[in-house]
Amino acid sequence: MTQPRDFTQLPDLAARALGGSVIWANDESFAEKENLIRSGVPGHSPATFGHKGQVYDGWETRRRRAPGSDHAIIRLGTPGIIHGVIVDTSWFVGNYPPEVSVEGTNVAGYPDPNTINDAAEWETLVPQTRVDGNLPNKFDVSNRARFTHVRLSMHPDGGVARLRVHGYAKPDPALLAAGPLDLAAVENGAYVTDCSNFFYSSPNNLLMPGFARSMGDGWETARRRFGSESWEAHNDWVEVKLAAPGTISMVELDTTCFLYNSPGSGRVQGRNGSGAWHEILPQTPLRPDTRHRFPVVASEQVTDVRLDIYPDGGMSRLRVWGQLTAEGHRVLQGGDE
Q: Where in the chain is the domain with CATH 2.60.120.260?
């Protein structure tokens, strides 16, 4: 399996846009727990005081006067295998926690937060470790189990601006076996394996649920200049590992929100394993701010797809609708990463 060079290139499984939620915290006296999974970088307005003190874009607890630690539980937007976490203490300088730890658990169904906190079996992802203030503290995770929830602990108290949980989605196989599905969706287990250009935004956005609300919710590349070698001989592209092997019946190339910077045309190819790429959708003109849906006839099993855009520009979403093959069902049941 192709691995990104940096775990931060993987999707954030805790992202609100993916359905993540902060379901419980033992304390949020100064700043609410929901800020932990907000999109974008943390903001700060100096000397902005509310009735609880300085307003922080993060989760902040009161000062402890007795032994103990503060905890928050995050339900991942989709269960998955975690490769790294970021505990971002941006703007917390004199009030960040000296140490943090992160644990994970895998629970079925939708139990209430107290049940998860009290009865779940928690596994260590990041042991109790010192962190710095006003920095995105990055931690690699070696535990390759599947997790549905994570628990962030601050020792003993303080403030954290954001928690990012990067990895590969691993949904319930029963959900994927129910019928046709988007084989390229992050929530179904797809992920980006390679990309020509990350200049403005991440290609992972292409695989997120729902419709883009702005250009920032999509994938946008740098400009290639007309007449240059990069214009005439090259184009931008992204490669995606599908959730599981399947056959494709429709592809969707969505340029919503991209008006004057959408690609002139697009092409989709597929392959099975490490085999040669074959054409699924030939190079086809694309319109700005348009959801393009193309039925395709593809009986051959596909494990990966490649989207080429000509010559550059922005796309909001890529959908690859199809059915799992017998091999796809086997892969899901086998629990391969």
A: 7-169, 173-334
SS3 state at 337: coil
Q: Beta strands 70-88 and 265-271: pairing type?
A: unpaired
Q: Per residue in 261-307, pLDDT tens?
A: 999 999 999 999 988 999 999 999 999 999 999 999 877 999 999 99
CATH topology for 7-169 is Jelly Rolls (2.60.120)
Domain covering 173-334 in this structure, CATH number: 2.60.120.260
**Residue 12 vs residues 167, 191, 207, 259, 321: alpha-carbon distances, Å:** 7, 11, 12, 27, 23
Task: List, for residues 21-53, the tens digit of each pLDDT value.
Answer: 999 999 998 889 999 999 888 877 776 766 676
Strands of 89-233 (E only): list them: 99-105, 123-130, 136-140, 146-155, 159-160, 162-169, 181-182, 191-195, 219-220
Please identify which residue in the block is written with the tokens 């883009």. 212
Distances in Å between the alpha carbon of 229 and those of 54, 200, 236, 265, 290? 53, 21, 13, 19, 29
Q: Residue 60 class from Cβ within 10 Å (0-12 exposed, 13-18 middle, 19+ buried)?
A: buried
Tokens standing for residue 290: 């348009």
